[in-house]
Amino acid sequence: MYILTGILMFVIGSIIAACGGDFSGLEVIVKFVGGAVLVLAIMWLFTQPVLLIIVIALIVIIAMCCAGSSK
Questions:
Q1: Could you say which DSSP state residue 58 is in?
Q2: Rounded to the nearest 10 degrees, what angle do helices 24-47 and 49-69 cross at?
Q3: What is the distance between the alpha carbons of residues 52 and 59, in angstroms, rounded to a whole number?
Q4: Which among 29, 32, 39, 69 counts the fewest CB atoms within 10 Å?
């Protein structure tokens, strides 16, 4: 319960600080949530082999396009 209270106080404090112009707390929250979503998405892709192959193919195609266009 203390951990949840600390997290809630951090979120509220970050919002209050953002109103004053300090966005570092919100940046940490966004990075943490984004990282958690990324990990969950990767875990979900490993349960769907066809989607994993499609994602890998897209990454390879994008990398080839980016490497070919740099002159």
A1: H
A2: 120
A3: 11
A4: 69
pTM beyond 0.85: the answer is no
Residue 53 is encoded by which pair of tokens? 């192959």
3-state SS, residue 27: helix
Q: Residue 23: which residues within 8 A CB-CB, separation 6 or more?
A: 17
Please return the burial class of 52, using the count of CB atoms within 10 Å of its CB with bins 0-12, 13-18 and 19+: middle
Location of structure tokens 């390879």: 60
Taking only the tens place, the pLDDT of each residue in 20-67 is: 999 999 999 999 999 999 999 989 888 888 988 998 999 999 999 988
